[in-house]
Amino acid sequence: MTTVQKIKEIEDEMAKTQKNKATSYHLGQLKAKLAKLRRELISPSGGGGGGGAGIGFDVARTGVASVGFVGFPSVGKSTLMSKLTGTHSEISEIDFTTLTTVPGTVKVHGAPIQILDLPGIIEGANDGRGRGRQVIAVARTCNLIFIVLDVLKPLGDKKIIEGELEGFGIRLNKKPPSINFRKKEKGGIAITHTVPLTNIDEDDIRGICNEFKINNCDIAIREAGVTADDLVDVIEGNRVYIPALYILNKIDAISIEELDLLYKIPMSVPISSKEWLNIDELIEKMWETLDLVRVYTKPRGLAPDYTQPVVLRRGKCSVEDFCSSIHKEIAKQMKYAIVWGASSKHARGQKVGLDHILEDEDVVHISKK
């Protein structure tokens, strides 16, 4: 029996099993078993490999962030990519015109952002069909995913693509669950929680641990609404949490009333890549979702340089990160920094150290020892 068949068998058994106190331990085991089988699909063992990016998929990274275009064939990804970046990506009405990853760069608010046009995926991609595995492997490394959908059938395609990405360990528009998991040598399974357990119980947890052959561990749940799937994700430890925008393309083919309905889909931006409609909103939404921090340099005795910002990622935007992004020696030579802007306590500037966290459009002067 193939791995895909085993997965189907377990999914069927889970669908037939009614959840109650008597079956929760068994369901926990099934969920853990399912996760292990999916892991085999992501990184199959054996000399042939298949888990890596593959020829034409390994792309040199440029810019401060990368955005991957994911979608079914012929939804307009290549047209959008070509017009956004000026990079040529094969365009045709037929399916599977793009066969490898095509990189390009677009500058937004002074920040170079890499755009990756990935080949169209097909249903069953996470099971290894088509080039789905390579496509989704590249998507795992992106800072933001554009899921490009045909406006005439958005919800059906959206559900299928989300399922393919989920099956490959990509969690869209989610944050890692607040679960602390630690293995230990003895003492059994210790479960603590600071919130009521509504979607999982201790039998579920023990069943999952049993399937992973974990007999001694500490599990602390600190977030309401945690599910068995969340616990499996934490134990597996190979999940990636990536923001996604749903790009609803070809709005030139629908009415205004239909367009109003599309705006109700969360995290969506209706556009027309062919007619170049609503692209400004798409670029602004991309910038907002990437959550980048621009920092301007100010040499001694001169005005700040607003033409070439140093662009940092939120969460890695301390003065030390700022120094390292210019040159790794600057942080060692720094005596103090003066910061003007949103992160400064004073309008006239604030003297700070390496651990000071910078905000978007701050101005920084570095004073050396």
Describe the structure.
- There is one protein chain.
- This protein is of the alpha/beta class and 369 residues long.
- The chain is 31% helix and 24% strand.
- The protein has eleven helices and 16 strands.
- A six-stranded mixed sheet has the order 2-3-1-4-10-11, with helices on both faces. Strands 13-12-16-14-15 form a five-stranded mixed sheet.
- Helix 1 packs antiparallel against helix 2 (24-42) and helix 2 crosses helix 7 (228-236).
- Residues 45-56 and 91-99 have low confidence and may be disordered.
- This is P-loop containing nucleoside triphosphate hydrolase protein.
**Mean of pLDDT:** 85
Please report the distance between the alpha carbons of the first and last residues: 68 Å
Category by helix and strand content: alpha/beta
Computed CA radius of gyration, to the nearest angstrom? 24 Å
User: Largest beta sheet, briefly?
Assistant: 6 strands, mixed
Shape: globular
What percent strand?
Answer: 15-25%
Uncertain segments are: 45-56, 91-99
Pfam family, one: MMR_HSR1_Xtn
GO molecular function: GTP binding; GTPase activity
Domain TGS: 291-368
InterPro entries: Beta-grasp_dom_sf, DRG, G_OBG, GTP-bd, GTP-binding_2, GTP1-OBG_CS, P-loop_NTPase, Small_GTP-bd
